[in-house]
Amino acid sequence: MKIKLDHQIVIYIIFLFIISCFFIYSSSLKSGQYGGAVNFVYKQIFFYIIGFVSMIIISKLDLEQLKAVSFFIYIVIFILLIGLIFAPESIARPINNAKAWYQIPFIGSFQPSEFLKFSFLILTSWIIVTHNKKYNVHKLKTDSLLLGKVALLTLPPMLLVYIQPDTGMIMLYVSMLLPMLFFSGIQRKILIFILSIPISIFSFILSCYIFFNKFYQDKILGSLSPHQISRINGWLDPFNYGDSAYQTKQGLLAIGTGQVYGKGFMHNNVYVPEKHTDFIFSNIAEETGFIGASIVLVILFLIILRFVQISLNANTQFTILLTSGIVSLFTFQVFQNVGMTVGLLPVTGVTLPFLSYGGSSLLSNMMLVGIMMSIKNSYVDLMFKTKERD
Fold this sequence. Notes:
The chain is an all-alpha fold. The protein has helices at about 5-30, 35-60, 65-85, 115-135, 140-160, 165-180, 190-210, 215-220, 225-235, 245-260, 280-310, 315-340, 360-390, and strands spanning about 100-105, 110. The two termini are about 25 Å apart.
């Protein structure tokens, strides 16, 4: 069976794989455990191999097969998310006050919520396409029915993810689902209403923070978990909440001391918690400076640009929905991760695609890349079949 891969994407990911291994090693070595740094790199290589295999397998599946696979994954992940609530800490150990991972011997941790991105993407697209075939005229009633179907699919597992708590993952889901709803064809006034809800909530919270700080502290922050409160306070007021903002301040210090050309490989000396995972960008900037950090961002941009090019050739509503969700997800993920390392956005635990250490995140992202390649293969095959008929 001939394997059809997008060579541009593969080359970009190989570059990021090499960069990832170098800087995971460099940042981990500063912990004082040589064996730990080597172990992280070996695991990252292992995750990348599994990721590439998954990407190739998914790229060979047609769109109907993807639907079947995504429904199976959805059911399994939903069960695993429920299991996290009741699992003992020997199986599901809390990390940073979030119970979101299963511990797998000799491999590491497994985060089920990462793979909901794959299922949400395909199943939501399928629901929208099926709904639009049945109701080809968009009315308030039919569009509300579509929103109800999407909510029934996405809200129950999202609630389980939220109570872990993992607000960063919820943000990724929303960043993927919103553009899909936009391209679903539902009336713009409904979209405006949906968008007005988070905007209104954010405006209300911001007003309370500025003008009614006691109410903000007691009622709004009081309803959140201590971990969430710490991150919000550290982001909004880093000088008065030094402990909460420690990671952000150290990340900024690492990036700033890198200056233009960096300190050189293995010469990072600023301690940043989770430097090999969520804050790997700060380590890259510290050792390679503005030049190296810019090169990394350019490679990530080129991957997203290639996704956009593939999406522009999508010839069905189903593939348009899939590509819009993937492009938006990766764009938001890069923006959120880099934004939190420079203090622009709150720390949410969102990883930097293809660079941060973490098997679940890397594998789920490679699966999404596989979908993009499957879409590209589907319209390339259709083009050749059309030419043969002519």
